[in-house]
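Forum: Protein Structure Q&A
Topic: Joint prediction for protein chains with partners

I've read a bunch of threads here and the consensus seems to be that you should model interacting components together rather than docking separate models afterwards. I'd like to see that in practice. Below is the full input, 717 residues plus whatever partners are listed. Could one of the regulars post the assembled result?
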Amino acid sequence: MSDPIGARFAPLFAPRTVAVIGASATGITPGNEFIRHSLALGFAGKIVPIHPTAASIEGLPCARGFAELPEPVDYAYVAVGATQVPAVIAGAKGKLRFAQVISSGFGEIAAGQALDAKLRAAVAESGVRLLGPNCLGTYSPRGRISFVGGSPPAEGAIGIVSQSGGLAVDIILRGAQRGLGFSGVVTIGNSLDLGPADLLAFYLDDPATRAIGLYLEDVKDGRRFFEAMRAARGVKPVVLLLGGQTEQGRKAAASHTGSLASDARIWSGLARQTGAAMTSTLDRFLDTLLAFQTLAPRPGAGTRRVVLFGNGGGTSVLAADAFARAGLSVAAMAPDAIAALEALQLPPGTSVVNPIDAPAGALRQDEGRVAERVLDAVLRLERPDAVVMHINLPVFAASADQRADFVENLVQAALRARSRHPGAAHLVLVLRSDGSAEVDARKRGYRARAVALGIPVFDEMSQAAIALAAVAGFERSAGSTG
Amino acid sequence: MDLAKRLVAAARAEGRTALDEVSSKRILVDAGIAVPRGVVGADPAAAARAAATAGLTFPLVAKLVSPDAVHKSDLGGVRLGLSDAAALLEALEALARLARERGLGLDGLLVEETAPAGCEMVIGGVVDPRFGPVIMAGLGGIFVELFEDVAFRVCPVAPADAKDMLEELRAVALLRGARGGPRLDEAAVVAALLAVGGAGGLMERLGASIRSLDVNPLIVAPRGAVACDARIVPA
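Posted by a regular:
Agreed with the consensus. Here's the joint model:
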């Protein structure tokens, strides 16, 4: 066990040989799904379906059992009836490194306790490291394996551990729509053997992973988890989405993964102690991860001073409230910055104090290039920690004036301003839609391009505020480490 | 074996549901938390004599020390503001009578000096089934009970964590001169939090041998903080 952790987990995240137990020669089971989605991702290693009778499954020649296989298998996807699982694991002794057990009916139900004990014994005896049971699988773009159809092939920087398999599907697919890219998504279900602390330690060490997201209902080994979280403090951002934080949620978690959730107040204390960001909804979890994926944490005391720049007076006021609630300051800019903005002679109706509230007409001036001069002045003279640019898209989409693609120009302007003032401030974009098909379609394109260029895009100002506050929290914990 | 472990082991061996106040306070003192100056006597006369010999300063507090009196203040087992020797003796006799009438075991009678005026704080430690020892802090009796204004941390807490626990409390203003009051000794509170929940603190040392440890109240004064009552429940 003295191998570096990256090497120990390589067979899981980049397996060369994969066994699938529970795929069908005639139907489509989760095992078949796993084979097809992994092949669709371009899995280039060897897949061996293990089946008692079938000659081939999904066009791949079958084996009868691990005993037949000449060399050890890196990863096995096990989706057979729960009662068969302990024997499968016991029979893989010396022939298998990681098994992911999809089957349920173990510790999460009263009638499954005996089976749970049998599986535990099989794990101990065989030396196989086990994920699950009661989970859905692993998505690893670097290893080109996935249990979810439509998983993006691109390798990303967000490492996920999810106790729930179903929620991991949301994380992968909804996350991808927002521009999140993953270094891995591992579902752990009951975490009978490997738990969040193990995977957290892997991601912490993994050079491909920039930030870590955890969906948890419970940690079986709380002390080890706490130590792993402490080790991550200030090193890599960790975003927590916790289930079972209320009495009602606790009961749901108990029957979902057999969890015994600790007091929500202990969790929130642990998050403060370890510098982790706590989120309470999937959307906030994804937004916060997006901020960490795109924004490089700024050294020092932590992001606090924010300049808001966009169209919409009421939106600016509501945003100032949202940022205040998130602990971020939207304060009047320095006199020289204000003077520089006034010198730009923006049209009447423009407010340049902060929030910089510019009507659409003002933003559209000079094909939108006025925005670049505004950003330049702000970054050069005010030097805030973050600039949040916000656009009410329908105003531009519905305008008679379609000569220039203003939003595209704004993004390009932001990029040029960023390159002239490297490391000056976090740049964040909020694209507000009316939900119409046309505007949403445009927004999708803008979002994809901006996120790819390192500018996070949010749907609403309040979401940007929450995500930016999480970045600020990480910056503070990084600043106070050591 | 250190004093804390020894006293907890003794209480467990005797099958006590909780350590008595005197033992709990000895453990706190050993960990570096101040408690009021006090003496214990087996009966009213002995307790009064011991108080006089020790030169305790009036006004004094008299308390029943009983393995059966879990909520001693509810029972009338605490007498406050005893301003002279006669009042003290009368209170001690009343406590002994109370124990007899209610059939409560009598471990002794505790006489203590009155704590300085200040703000009430609660420090609690519990052993969570998942995270092991955790520590809780709350401030200003009513805020803790009514508004659940408390902060938790997993042990061991670092000094920065202990300070951050106070920052998390809405009632922290009470320590900082709210409503015209004096600024109270935050450093003493941080020291008490670390004595209970810090590295090598009581929670870490006692670990799974206890279920909970409560310092309630810790009176925080402009200089110092004093644990006026304490309760340790063995596992």
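Chain B has a mean pLDDT of 92.
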